[in-house]
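Let us work through a complete example step by step.
Step 1: write down the sequence.
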Amino acid sequence: MGCRFPVILLLFLLPALASAQDRSSGGQQGWVATPAASTVGELGSEQVVTLGDLEQIAFQNNPTLARASARMQAAQGRQVQASLYPNPVVGYHATEIGNLGTAGQQGAFVSQRFITAGKLGLDQAIVGKEIDEAHFRFHGQEQRVLSDVRVRFYDALVAQKRVELTKTLTRIGDELVQSTEKLLEGRLATDNDLLQAEIRADESRILFDNARNQQIEAWRRLAAVVGMPQMQMATASGELTGELPQLEWDSCCATVLAGNPELNAAQARLDRAEIVIRRAKKEPIPNVDLFVSVRKNNISGSDNANVQLGIPIPIFDRNQGNVAAAEADWVAASKEVQRIELDLQDRLAVAFRRYSNARQQVDRYGRRMVPRAKKSLDLVTQGYQKGQVKYLTALTAQQTYVQVSLSYLDSLQELRVSSSVIDGQLLTGSLASQW
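Step 2: predict the structure and record it as tokens.
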């Protein structure tokens, strides 16, 4: 059994090899995009950028931010338009043309509508609330972009670590097959041992291929959210296990609800609905139409002036339908504020449950299960060396260590993602159409 030492050594070195690979990478995990000062075409895998670099790139290139800014500028334009007074009307008119063979009365007129009851001010106030809503939506979109960049950055880091781990496993699996073949030649291993080693090696390659595909997907999604889908892969400077967030429910509620852009935008719509009611009630108050004309009377040879003043009488149309509609819209807007508050708390409950599960899993995997899996592998290796453990038991110990390590990565990913979503006030999905 002593001649099986190469196999024993490979099994024993699995954790050490993975750790050595981490040290050789300088503790950097994952990959990200080009720094803002670089050209996309110049990027390469040897370049290193940070989460801050990605956030800066996203603010410069994500089209949804420019779209939200344009919406805000459009609302500002509508406010300017709402402040403009009606234009006067200037024209020419003639009457009694041909009377007694003369040109009749020829002249010019000017008319002006005067807006009463402060309606223009209310119109400006209504659009002012639309500007407030667009402003909150813009900042909400900024937060969505930040949250998406952070979530996909951590997805990329985990994908990179998974590639590193499965790559190490693949190499060890190939070496294990080679060692088993030599042991088989020396009649120190069985055909079944070789078959099992080959199966494990193929499984390792499948895991590696899947991890690589996941890495490519994570990169493409990260590049899309920063607005530069053609970016080449680069190495990111990031840490998955350092400074793990410690969140409490009460503080998370305060973070999500305090100054939430979605909630503030809904409140702006409610304030607008209140002003619309006031404006609708002012509508029946008549505006004044003033008409002044000056004419030359060619029949009598005199000059004449004419003044007309007209106002509509609100007998039939007192704008009662629009007032009722505005009041109903206010009720709907007030209930929308309540709905968003409840929706935020509902979504927070889900996100906090995900965080809590991930937090306890990370603690258990990091402090207990991963060290125990490694210790188990060491004990099995020692027993195998002494002939006290079967070959399949050693392979099982190896597989357990790998599975626990991959599950640890999944838990770290879930922890980082859920905490990023909570810190971002539950605002995600920046590439989805918002309004």
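Step 3: interpret the result. The domain at 2-423 is CATH 1.20.1600.10 (Outer membrane efflux proteins (OEP)).
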